[in-house]
Write a structure and sequence with these properties.
A six-stranded antiparallel sheet has the order 3-4-5-8-7-6. A two-stranded antiparallel ribbon has the order 1-2. 25% of the residues lie in helices and 27% in strands. α2 crosses α3 (65-77). 38% of the residues are buried. It has two domains: 6-91, Orthogonal Bundle (Arc Repressor Mutant, subunit A), CATH 1.10.10.10; 106-242, Chorismate lyase. A hairpin with a 2-residue loop joins β4 and β5 (155-164). It has helices at residues 28-41, 54-61, 65-77, 106-112, 130-135, 182-189, 206-211, and strands at residues 81-84, 88-91, 117-127, 143-152, 155-164, 194-202, 220-229, 232-242. By secondary structure, the protein is of the alpha+beta class.
């Protein structure tokens, strides 16, 4: 599984958390984080390699040094980067990657446990989000955007924030995702050829936390995934799971 780079390639993009109100401009430090992750995911910066200095990034982005410092500090805490005193900042070894993660439908997983799945659709609309368009490899918008809370026996266990390529799934916005999950719908129409993953341990923002009925400070397991159908990026999705109610497992 990946961490936010790999998938982040043509835009790992992804943390554009859904809002019920118009999205605000992304903070400069977050833009720098996404830039760093994208350069790593696209192979420009290799694991173990030295990245540009804070001074170089300050000059490139035209921001205060403290802004760059915050971005690098957070990426270091997320284990995307490793900082060595007196030597600089390096791309961390890829620690969370695996080719054995099976793409499963959350409804099927819940049913396999003998439990009832339900879904609540928060957002289903066109989106011109530039990060999402980049992740999908689109030169212009809109992309399709959905935010869905999946529950098991009435308890929320997954917040799904998904962007979809309209060239691949033209009728995505016409679907009823309380009846069929996006994963099931897309695999039914066009089987996935390949995928990229990244996994993080993160604290969700207040919006995600509220929809997952989590306590303040409770961590999430965050999975970022991008999938291809043919030569097209089909979807870019972030999945947030309360760590106390969910785990990932697999076998080789």
């Amino acid at each position: 599984m990946q961490a936010q780079p790999g998938a982040q390639s043509a835009g790992t993009a992804e943390r554009a958390a859904c809002k019920e109100t118009p999205a605000r401009a992304m903070p400069a430090y977050e833009q720098i984080k996404r830039y760093v992750i994208r350069r790593i995911s696209e192979g420009d910066w290799k694991p173990g390699g030295l990245i540009p200095s804070e001074a170089e990034l300050v000059k490139e982005f035209g921001v205060a040094r403290m802004t760059v410092s915050r971005a690098l500090r957070e990426l270091t805490a997320e284990r995307v980067l490793a900082r060595v005193q007196g030597s600089g900042t390096f791309v961390a070894p890829q620690r969370y990657e695996s080719t054995v993660l099976e793409i499963r439908n959350i409804a099927d997983e819940i049913a396999a446990r003998g439990h009832r799945h339900s879904a609540r659709v928060l957002t289903l609309e066109p989106s011109g989000d530039p990060q999402a368009l980049e992740a999908l490899g689109l030169s212009s918008g809109p992309a399709f955007h959905s935010c869905i809370v999946h529950s098991e026996e009435g308890e929320p266990i997954q917040y799904e924030d998904r962007y979809v390529n309209p060239k691949v799934f033209r009728e995505y916005l016409q679907q009823d995702f309380t009846v069929e999950t996006p994963n099931h719908y897309m695999v039914r129409l066009a089987p996935i050829q390949r995928a990229e993953f990244r996994i993080y341990a993160q604290k969700p923002d207040a919006y995600v936390r509220r929809h997952l009925s989590m306590e303040i400070g409770e961590p999430c397991l965050q999975l970022w995934r991008r999938t291809w159908v043919g030569d097209d990026v089909a979807t870019s999705v972030q999945l947030w799971h309360p760590a106390s109610r969910f785990h990932l497992a697999g076998k080789v």
